[in-house]
Specification:
alpha+beta; Mannose-Binding Protein A, Chain A; 8 strands; 25% helix
């Protein structure tokens, strides 16, 4: 928990140094704003289900990615928090039907960045990112424990 508090404190000091991630009034304290969403990085490893539960408790879901631009933005955020490209959970899984991936926030699963030969393993139903040298996606057992990234709409994106 202390690690998460220290990371939140560091995050609050961020500015637009990388051009897209900074603290903003449209996100709760400790969350970072980027492209109409708020993000919270949690370094404490949890199973995929426990990570999703923690994000829901905070009013969001595990993060979803819908374009290469979003993926690079998410990687940049993770790199700032973890001082590298650490593997972590995002919100996709194919637990309901093998090969049919969906995001836990209910959005469509159209974009992917699978590592060569990945997303082909039975009983490996959850998505980790920053896998291997290419820092691409891999399907792993949902019982594995990893850090994770939560996402929720910013308050500005909720306004009509």
């Amino acid at each position: 928990m202390l690690t998460a508090v220290l990371l939140v404190s560091a995050a609050m000091a961020l500015t637009t140094t990388n051009g897209f991630i900074f603290q903003r009034k449209n996100c709760p304290p400790g969350w970072l704003w980027s492209n109409k969403s708020c993000y919270f990085y949690y370094s404490g490893p949890r199973t995929w289900a426990r990570a999703e539960e923690a994000c829901m408790h905070l009013g969001g879901h595990l993060a979803s990615v819908h374009s290469v631009t979003e993926y690079l933005r998410v990687q940049g955020l993770v790199a700032q928090f973890s001082h590298g490209f650490m593997p972590l959970w995002l919100g996709a899984n194919d637990a309901a039907q093998e090969g049919q991936w969906f995001w836990s926030d209910g959005t469509q699963f159209h974009y992917s960045n699978w590592c060569p030969g990945q997303h082909n393993n039975h009983f490996e139903d959850c998505l980790q990112i920053n896998f291997g040298e290419r820092k691409c996606w891999d399907d792993v057992s949902c019982q594995h424990s990893l850090p994770f990234l939560c996402q929720k709409p910013s308050r500005a994106s909720l306004c009509p």
